[in-house]
Amino acid sequence: MAAAVTENKYYLKSLHEEIGLFDRKLAHLMKHGVYASDEERDAAARKLTKKRETLAETARRLASEGIEYKTSELPRSFLPEGVEPEAAPQAAVEAEAAAPAAAGQLNRTARRQASAYAGTSLDWEQSIRDYMSNKKA
């Protein structure tokens, strides 16, 4: 027995993501798909379009019922003609770019600390130093 689907904003978001995926699949099929005949290509396109339309109908119904969604999460095919998807705010992009750099600095600092195995047979850093000195010789 299948579990009941809770129709909420998260389900709507996943529907939008799936619709976007089907849009990309259709575009790829039409541009790069290799088929023996145009009829086979059209049949494959109809199959994908039918699945996509089922998802689109559900998404439209949920939106009309008042379930909230972000316009930035809409698939491109749902956007009005000539409207581009919203870009991430510049401050958020800069913060994301700075976060990995700060994390990298923390990792370098942590690596400079003495190993718990220093001076034992498990000291891999010493074995690397020995290997490098033997390799030079």
Summary?
The protein is built from four helices and no strands. It is an all-alpha fold and 137 residues long.
Structure description:
- It is built from four helices and no strands.
- The protein has 137 residues and is an all-alpha fold.
- Helix 1 (9-32) runs antiparallel to helix 2.
- Mean pLDDT is 81; it is low at 88-93.
Structural features:
137 residues; mainly alpha; 4 helices
Low-confidence runs: 88-93
Structural class: mainly alpha
Mean pLDDT comes to 81
Beta-strand segment tally: 0
Order of helices and strands: HHHH
| C-alpha-based Rg, rounded | 27 Å
Strand content: under 5%
Shape: elongated
The portion of residues assigned to helices is 55-70%
Give the distance, in angstroms, between the N- and C-terminal Cα atoms.
Answer: 70 Å
Helix count, DSSP H or I runs of 4 or more residues: 4
For the sheet with most strands, the description reads: none
